[in-house]
Amino acid sequence: MRIIQVDERDNVAIPTADLAPGTPMGGGLFARSYIPQGHKIAMADLREGSPVVRYGAVLGHLMQPVQAGGLISETMLRLPESPDLDGLEFGTDIVTDLPEPPVSVFEGYPVEGSPYGGTRNILGIMTTVQCVAGVLNSAVERMRKELLPLYPAVDDIVPLNHPYGCGVAIDAPDAKIPIRTLRNLLRNPNFGGELMVVGLGCEKLTVERLLEPGEISGENVIMLQDHRGYVTMTDALLEMAERKLKRLNERRRQPLPLSALCVGMQCGGSDAFSGITANPAAGYASDLLVSGGATVMFSEVTEVRDGVRQLAARCADAFVGRRLAEEMRWYDDYLRAGGVDRSANPTPGNKKGGLANIVEKAMGSIAKSGRSPVVEVLSPGERPSKRGLIYASTPAGDMVCGTCQLASGMTLQVFMTGRGTPYGLAAAPVIKVSSRSDLKDMWSDLIDVDAGVIVSGEASIREVGELLFREIVDTASGRKRPWAEKHRLHNDLCLFNPAPIT
Amino acid sequence: MRIIQVDERDNVAIPTADLAPGTPMGGGLFARSYIPQGHKIAMADLREGSPVVRYGAVLGHLMQPVQAGGLISETMLRLPESPDLDGLEFGTDIVTDLPEPPVSVFEGYPVEGSPYGGTRNILGIMTTVQCVAGVLNSAVERMRKELLPLYPAVDDIVPLNHPYGCGVAIDAPDAKIPIRTLRNLLRNPNFGGELMVVGLGCEKLTVERLLEPGEISGENVIMLQDHRGYVTMTDALLEMAERKLKRLNERRRQPLPLSALCVGMQCGGSDAFSGITANPAAGYASDLLVSGGATVMFSEVTEVRDGVRQLAARCADAFVGRRLAEEMRWYDDYLRAGGVDRSANPTPGNKKGGLANIVEKAMGSIAKSGRSPVVEVLSPGERPSKRGLIYASTPAGDMVCGTCQLASGMTLQVFMTGRGTPYGLAAAPVIKVSSRSDLKDMWSDLIDVDAGVIVSGEASIREVGELLFREIVDTASGRKRPWAEKHRLHNDLCLFNPAPIT
């Protein structure tokens, strides 16, 4: 058992295992009560109103006094105001001494006209509207059985079903978000540049809203209302799929520079260890990738909102910084309109895992962005125009973030978890990193990399970060398949639609 | 070819087939231009500012003059204001001479503690959160292969996946809508009263928010974080499913009074014929059902909003009427907050089908409620406390309406369509009714009942209504399976969540 203090300014620490009352913690301190693994212990006598400091940041102020060795639970903390978005300072913390990556290439699939290559070779079939999902799913079932075995170089056939497309206010100001997400999603590099869109014929999300005029033809688009019934439309779907599969089957992996790789970072089911093990290790891997020329995205507005000053300082220039503030402000307003604020983010599981509030969660969450400068800020579902570390603004929900990152071009995701989730995507491999070794022991066939060894002292952040970097390159190159991919664990696409439905 | 005028007050009519310019239409009238099937023809010279009247209702006012025989397109009409919700008159049109149904029983599955019986015998597996969907889906694939054949009296195993559960503002004022929907969904009578809930363990939508305290046990609930990895959790899911399947397999259909039947009415992909063929026929079937003691729900706020006066007059009492106005007002406000109004409802397909605007769409849409008094008004996803005709308030999107009606207890849906959609639900059979015979000819293996024969004069509204009533009873009794059920066309559950996501 150890007691971990992250920053020398901290007046709290967390135990690596549950503490019985009276357990000595060194320096004359002892546990005043039962203290669960990961929960905060006061390292000094703290008065009512005292700031509680972890990661060198004020998590909140005590609403009651706590003696040294006492447990500080989430109900004792008053949440501070969100950091002001006016007057942020940009570009004051631009790091240039990033670590060198051990390798500079991966084996990927080049995609014509795309800045990124694919890590998988998938036929993605986009839908304009949920109405067609039943027919498409039953056709895909047949395609997987009858066609896929004939084209062994193709990894999978993935229907891109979603609830959008009709019964929505398609001209509402915020409708641009789901529409852009779908437009970009069908161009994810893992789909190899092949376009296949299935529509109905009377929906609001017309094909014209998804494709360029030159792309709209019988080569790429099937409208079910044009076909004479179920059997005929299914036959048409299989026929188009086979044409696409033939082309995809010709593709071969080839060595590509890391600049052709676009990796997404996300965490979910976080705990108090996420911010000191899994996320900083992912941050180190991210720095290696960025330094090698790759693009790395991190996201989740409410989980970086309280770290906006640190991120502003890392923004490459004032334009990027202003875009960051703009995205944060948009989300503040969006939450306010629904009668909530960023404090609605933490889950019961986060709290059980020792995270007192959204400030503590955010301080751990931003660690996954490493130290690289932020070169671009994207609105949800936008595609980047630069390479390097990118803040791709998205909601924090795992599936919504994953869907937005896929739209932004991410071809492989790294997912850090403390409580444990079996999350997986059909369109890109997901590498899962545990914040605690307990979780890896418990879920040995779901967790790919254990960052809990950082707590036990078996490995450093840097060592786990390097290991994770290699895992990313091996997975991107198809040499390794993460557990979620092996088990075919595919979560639904979950669109972010802040506009009304009709 | 015929020209159809619905109400004697109407100054427009619609042709049953495309009209070439110059086609004589009787009474000295001829088509002034090409007029597509179902589009409006001026039956007299109309000045700028004239009201355009169909169904005896003002659809809007002309923004330009139109000569008799001229086409009135949607761009020529100025939309009137929504009918005022203050000062509605309630209970002034209570009909008591409903037609008698030809049969008074169906063969269903009684469900203990439920006012309604099931029409199918399905194991429904509820999820607390999307995180578990990948594991559950892969387990259900095995269940269907390994277990379902052993329990032949069970129709299917259906995972109830949804995007809610985490990454949401669970205490936001409007979060009650998705939570209530999920709570009630898992109690749909087609699931036979068996409860099976799969959660993760750290999500916001805790099991306590879905189940009563006495229902929460290892008998009904599996939390994935409690299990040692993928194989173990999958085994646990199969084991629980088998216990439930054993009990479901003991059930047998038995004669139940129509009062144990809960039918949902919905239309989608509507056209100008929907309101004179499919919807009134469904309305007649609805009256037969209600008169026989059954419960019939109709929904879709924006598609009844312009008919609120007619519905208010049919509300059984002032309490029901005030609830109707309340639901309409809530939706008005919800749309306004997103920068739109009810005019955002019609689709390109509706317009292509001759529906000029939401008023015309609504006038056709409410016809599916027949003439019965409205005995209760539900908020989205609520369960009824009465039998008879119920206005179950929902958005108009097909999948969202379907999901809400399932939560409200609907065990069979009747779906009217003009443009054609292959819509289907996994949890309840859906009977599809075409508004035009063209559609039935085109989609002979998707459309179950053709109401287009009303236009050709081959059958009356009453005759098609009776036919549909018999189709409903036969389908509810398991003697018939609609096309969508035969092809296993299952649309996703689409929740209505007007609250923010975090």
Overall residue-averaged pLDDT value of chain A? 97
Question: Biggest interface, which chains?
Answer: A-B, 83 and 83 residues
Strand order of the largest sheet of chain A: 18-19-17-16-20-21-22
Using the alpha-carbon principal axes, give the shape of chain A: globular
The amount of beta strand of chain A, in percent, is: 15-25%
- The number of helical segments of chain A is 13
What's the count of strands of chain A? 22
Largest sheet of chain A: 7 strands, parallel
Oligomer: homodimer
Radius of gyration of chain A: 24 Å
Structural class of chain A: alpha/beta
Number of domains of chain A: 3
Low-confidence stretches of chain A: none
Q: Tell me the span between the first and last alpha carbons of chain A.
A: 56 Å
* Residues in helices of chain A, as a percent range: 25-40%
Descriptive keywords:
Archaeosine Trna-guanine Transglycosylase, Chain: A, domain 4, homodimer, Ribose 5-phosphate Isomerase B, Chain: A, alpha/beta, 7-stranded parallel β-sheet, 3 domains, 4-stranded antiparallel β-sheet, 502 residues
